[in-house]
Design brief:
mainly alpha
Length: 99
């Protein structure tokens, strides 16, 4: 007897993947807002991709006992080379009006 794949199970699997991706993205955006607040800048200037890539570096620092706080690690002056703050060429930088 030939078994037919359960279409309901595969749909649930796809829904679970979509939900997990959405949840991870929400946490990543919240983390970007927290990092932007620590840097005292707009959250649009934080690179979400580089923030995600920095998890790898934090994981190694955590496993070696160098750091235990993600926000402190990401905002540390020693870790500016992670590229979390988006680079803006001088030609596109605008002077802010200080009223």
């Amino acid at each position: 007897m030939k078994q037919v794949a359960n279409p309901k199970g595969s749909i649930n699997g796809v829904k679970l993947q979509i939900w997990a991706t959405w949840l991870f993205y929400a946490v990543l955006i919240d983390l970007a807002d927290t990092v932007a607040n620590e840097f005292e800048m707009e959250s649009e200037k934080i690179s979400i991709e580089m923030l995600f890539r920095s998890f790898y570096h934090f994981n190694h620092a955590y496993n070696r006992g160098f750091s235990h706080d993600l926000i402190a690690y990401l905002t540390s002056p020693k870790n500016r080379d992670l590229g979390i703050v988006k680079y803006q060429p001088k030609s596109q930088q605008r002077d802010t009006l200080d009223l």
